[in-house]
Amino acid sequence: EADIYQTPRYLVIGTGKKITLECSQTMGHDKMYWYQQDPGMELHLIHYSYGVNSTEKGDLSSESTVSRIRTEHFPLTLESARPSHTSQYLCASSGEFAPGEKLFFGSGTQLSVL
Amino acid sequence: RKEVEQDPGPFNVPEGATVAFNCTYSNSASQSFFWYRQDCRKEPKLLMSVYSSGNEDGRFTAQLNRASQYISLLIRDSKLSDSATYLCVVNRPDSWGKLQFGAGTQVVVTP
Fold first, then answer.
1. Contact list, B94 vs chain A (CB under 8 Å)
2. CB–CB contacts below 8 A, A to B
3. Which of A26, A35, B60, B100 lies in the 20 to 30 Å Cα band around A75?
């Protein structure tokens, strides 16, 4: 089993609130990712990091921000949540290099913004 | 056109039967291919990598056809526990370290 953890598992929050989704891994992986997934749809990459102090935006434009101050920790923050942010957010990590990538996923955070 | 396309299904399969489905990818330079399994409202988990020569893992067989740019997954002797969505995943040669996920093929195994 992969050692990557996300909290909270479910979050229901009102519009305008600031939220932080936590993601931690204990595998020492350099690469970490945040994906967004809506029901029946593919995963979309919203942020990634290849190491400490490295963060990049993914393919899907997102109002969220991320930080990578420690190898094991990759939190995602929304300054002002809106109903359009309602989705499942999946954190993943990988210790391998291109071209093959085996991703280990956390159990996800289901975010509902009212 | 999507980079990775899959038949969404559902494929309704009697227990013990065989089911197979494909996934097509658009970038001929892709080199790495995977099948992930995702249960309802859960995270994706790697099922198997797909190698050029084809590979088997128990009841699961994956094939790669580079000429036609598709990969396939075959499940033999289906179990109820095989019910899930199967995600086709392909590396993106233009973006080092990134993967492209298909939307998934749903398989429902019935008693």
1. none
2. 57
3. B100
Note which residues in 37-56 of chain B have CB less than 8 A from chain A: 41-46, 49
The whole-angstrom separation of Cα B37 and Cα B24 is 17
Contact flag A102-B49 (C-beta cutoff 8 Å) = yes
A45: left (phi over 0), alpha (psi -120 to 50) or beta: beta
* Residue of A102 and B16 predicted with greater confidence: B16
What are the pLDDT digits (tens) for B9-22?
999 999 999 999 99
Q: Does A70 touch chain B (CB under 8 A)?
A: no
Long-range CB pairs of A40-45, under 8 A, 24+ apart, other chains included:
A40/B8, A40/B103, A40/B104, A41/B103, A42/B4, A42/B87, A42/B101, A42/B102, A42/B103, A42/B104, A43/A90, A43/B44, A43/B87, A43/B101, A45/B98
| Tens digits of residue pLDDT in B23-57 | 999 999 998 899 999 999 899 999 999 988 889 99
Site of tokens 């039967």: B17
Is the peptide bond prior to A39 cis by the omega test (within 30 degrees of 0)? no
Cα-based distances in Å from A32 to A51, A53, A66, B105: 8, 12, 11, 26
